[in-house]
Amino acid sequence: MADCIFCKIANHEIDSDFVYEDDQVVAFRDMEPQAPVHFLVVPKKHIPCLDECTEEDKELIAHIMLKIPEIAKSLGITTGYRVVINNGDDAFQTVKHLHFHVLGKRKMTWPPG
Ligand code: 5GP
Ligand code: ZN
């Protein structure tokens, strides 16, 4: 997707603070961190949002979910973290390329805002 910021980051067309990369995903620090550690895990495949995932994406999503604890540990998060997917307008999804927020190194509150 030519105009997608996360496709550009995944293709290394835009410099970012990467914390992990493999053939399927990149992870990089959020430019407006909402916690002392806040990174985004982004599939290299352009999928606009969770609603648009299909059976074909099953292994990719499982791969991401298993990578998150590994990356969190590598960044020194030892006492818990939150994983967030904003899907659609009510959730204030601002970038229309599926991404998983991972927030850690502070106490979270519940319910979320
Ligand atoms: P959303 O609201 O779509 O769930 O979250 C998008 C996130 O991407 C926001 O937290 C925002 O700060 C982050 N973001 C948007 N553009 C960029 C960028 O160019 N670089 C980085 N590192 N983060 C970005
Ligand atoms: Zn994209």
3D structure, described in words:
With 113 residues, the protein is of the alpha+beta class. Helices cover 20% and strands 22% of the residues. The chain contains 2 helices and 5 strands. Strands 1-2-3-5-4 form a 5-stranded antiparallel beta sheet. The mean pLDDT is 97. Zinc ion (ZN) is lined by residues 1, 4, 6-7, 46, 97. Residues 5, 16, 28-32, 40, 86, 92-95 line the site of guanosine-5'-monophosphate.
Written as H for each helix and E for each strand, in order along the chain, the element string is HEEEHEE
Q: If helices are DSSP runs of H or I spanning 4 or more residues, what is the number of helices?
A: 2
Main β-sheet: number of strands, strand sense, barrel status? 5 strands, antiparallel
The share of residues in extended strands comes to 15-25%
Rg over CA atoms, rounded to whole Å, is: 14 Å
Helix content: 10-25%
Give a brief rundown of this model.
With 113 residues, the protein is an alpha+beta fold.
Task: Name the descriptors.
113 residues, alpha+beta, 2 helices, binds guanosine-5'-monophosphate, binds zinc ion
Secondary structure: elements and pairs:
Elements: H1 5-10, E1 18-21, E2 25-29, E3 37-43, H2 58-74, E4 81-84, E5 100-104
Antiparallel strand pairs: 1-2, 2-3, 3-5, 4-5
This protein binds guanosine-5'-monophosphate and zinc ion (ZN).
